[in-house]
Amino acid sequence: MTPFRLELQSLSVRYGATRALDGVGFTVEPGTICGLLGRNGSGKTTLLSTVAAFRRPTAGRVLVDGETPFENARVMAGICLVREGGDVLDDRVDAALRYAARIRSTWDASLAARLVERFELPRRASVKALSRGKRSALGAVIGLASRAPLTLFDEVYLGMDAPSRYAFYDELLADYMAHPRTIVLSSHLIDEVERLFEHVVIIDHGRLLVADTSESLARSGVTVTGPADAVDAFVAGANVLRRQELGRTAAVTLHGHLDTEAERRASELGLTLGAVGLQDLFVHLTAPEKDAA
């Protein structure tokens, strides 16, 4: 199956009086990896559950491969959502894998077997008996081996130790390159996963803040590094996102573009300019104090 395109049109979801999503709209082009970022309670899980047709929108539309997924057998067969903690059949590990293979026409058994070995999953163990990290790893195996045209990972890495998380990232990227599909990965471990993203969506309190390419976001700010006194003089009055200092060297992240004159001045001061980090941008955009501004 070819990768699915995902489009949200003014999507809103309510739980009683609570608006979990409020007019969210963006597009993920087929065959890309999109990072879905937001603080706890921002609406990430609700968004992914609605895309996967686990719930109806209150207003607006979700389009997957050009069609509404809710009660749409063709589209739903091409969506795989793996939620926190694995979210798999409550049976033995091997039974959960067999069930996934039966319902996924794109299932790759050899990939699943290799990943089970890599994550050291005991096939005959009960899913209930697995640690949180192993359950998450099992969910990751199912999400990757399903090779669904639209694959959604909702903080699936939670509970994994660092080596397992990085193994998951490496396996995801390698299999995506070999077998392209559309992947949405929600996370708050931004420094770990930003290298994977071609497109980034940031939501906060149910509202869309940013939907853009990673390349464009990297150009939305600049990091200035050099002698602390020269850096501080250069950034005076600018919109500072973050400041770090080690000895006599400082690194300051600014939001916004530098014009040619500013770049020339930085060069004269012996300062180094670099791209803004996604983590710094995310913290700035979702900072609670901005609501009071």
Question: Care to describe what's here?
Answer:
This protein is α/β, with parallel strands linked by helices and 293 residues long. The chain folds into 2 domains: 209 residues, Rossmann fold (3-Layer(aba) Sandwich); 55 residues, Alpha-Beta Plaits (2-Layer Sandwich), CATH 3.30.70. The chain is built from 11 helices and 13 strands. A 6-stranded mixed β-sheet has the order 5-6-7-3-8-9, sandwiched between helices. Helix 4 runs antiparallel to helix 5. The longest helix has 17 residues.
Describe how the helices and strands are arranged.
Elements: E1 6-15, E2 18-28, E3 33-37, H1 44-51, E4 59-64, H2 73-76, E5 79-82, H3 93-103, H4 109-118, H5 132-146, E6 150-154, H6 162-178, E7 182-187, H7 190-193, E8 199-204, E9 207-213, H8 214-218, E10 221-227, H9 228-235, E11 240-246, E12 249-255, H10 260-268, E13 272-275, H11 278-285
Parallel strand pairs: 3-7, 3-8, 5-6, 6-7
Antiparallel strand pairs: 1-2, 1-4, 8-9, 10-12, 10-13, 11-12
Helix pairs in contact: 4-5
